[in-house]
Structure formats: C-alpha cells, structure tokens
C-alpha cells in the first residue's frame, strides 16, 4: 500500500536517516514512513525498446522516483511524469527529466500512487510520444 498520512509522519518524527535519504534538518526522512516504497515495472510503448523500473518512495515532504531503463538513447534528456488514468491519462505530477535512461527525480508529496502511471517520454519536447510506462497496481487491503 502506498499511503502516507499525518499520523504516520508523527509516529516517525524521530526516525533515523538511511544513507543520503534525509537531506534537511527537521524533515521526516524520505523512505522512513511505513509502506512508502514501490517498484514499478516500465514496459516499452509505441515501438520503443526502452524498458526498466522506477523505484518510488513516498515521503511526508516529497516524492522520490529513481529510474533505471535499458534501451534508452545515449545523451538524450527525457521528460518523466506521473499520470492519473493510466499511461494515456492526465499529468498529475511533472517529475522533470532523466538522461541515458537513468536519474533521480523529486516532486511534491503524494498520498498514494495506487492506480497511477509512471511515464517516460521520448524527449523533453512538447507532445513527445510515450516510450515507456508502468501502472502502479491498485491497492487492495488484505483480509484478516
């Protein structure tokens, strides 16, 4: 489940930083909130050979996405975003860009990503076609 709430943030106020994840004094560290990590498989789209994964971490103060794609063109900057309504849906968060199919992007915090899509565009040009996309599975609570 990818849900971040105020109650969870209060409960982790004294959480320790792991690696370089906590970058500012007084911030709740990214990745220290319960159920805040997700791995999204990015599949090729529109005849592209690009595919890979996006590691998403939801934090109280920001959303962090780490991209690792194979088949990406060398030296080409590509726009990445999160969309509501699947791969062809509307842009929910602009994440910036990646180069060589790799990069770490950060955006304003999100409560969840359940059912949203992580999208990679061919270039940063307006209207560039989608070359890779992955949809975060909808969260279904476990029955006890």
Please provide a written account of the structure.
This protein has one domain: Immunoglobulin-like, CATH 2.60.40. Helices cover 4% and strands 41% of the residues. The protein is built from 1 helix and 8 strands; from the N terminus they run H-E-E-E-E-E-E-E-E. Strands 5-4-7-8-1-2-3-6 form an 8-stranded antiparallel beta sheet, with no helix packed on it. A hairpin with an 8-residue loop joins strand 7 and strand 8.
Features:
144 residues; mainly beta; Immunoglobulin-like; eight-stranded antiparallel sheet; 1 helix; 4% helix; disordered N terminus
Summarize it.
By secondary structure, the protein is mainly β. The chain contains one helix and eight strands; from the N terminus they run H-E-E-E-E-E-E-E-E.
CATH architecture: Sandwich
Order of helices and strands: HEEEEEEEE
User: Which parts are unreliable, with pLDDT below 50 for 5 consecutive residues or more?
Assistant: 1-19
Total count of strands: 8
Mean pLDDT: 79
Distance between the termini: 16 Å
As a whole number of angstroms, the C-alpha radius of gyration is 16 Å
CATH topology: Immunoglobulin-like
Helix content: under 10%
Largest sheet: 8 strands, antiparallel
